Amino acid sequence: MIAVLLFLVAVILVVSSLDFAGKAEKEGFHFVLDSTILLTVAALILYAVLLPAAGFIPTTFLMTVFLTAVYTLKEEKLCVRGLDKKDMIRIGRKSVITGAVLLVILWLVFAKLLAIQLP
User: Fold this and answer.
1) Is 2 part of a structural domain of the chain?
2) What's the Rg (C-alpha) of the chain?
3) How many domains is the chain built from?
């Protein structure tokens, strides 16, 4: 039943996005391959490789810390080379706290609430 509903919503979105009268301006999609995307892909590949060997808790924590730092730098338009010690400590603290909180939430939900064995 839900599959039918999702299909109908998808059809409505596709039909509504079509411009039969040709009134809308044509804007092309511009894909930018920047360092953030490359670092994210590399982190996810490394996560998949290290997960069986190191386990869920350390790999998830490290990936979360790393990606939080990367996206914080991007959001604040900062460069790693131009960071002073105060900014490094602030971003590091934010990343570690985010990683720890996410890990505790994931552990509580999956290991305790759903009783799923983590890898």
Assistant:
1) no
2) 21
3) 1
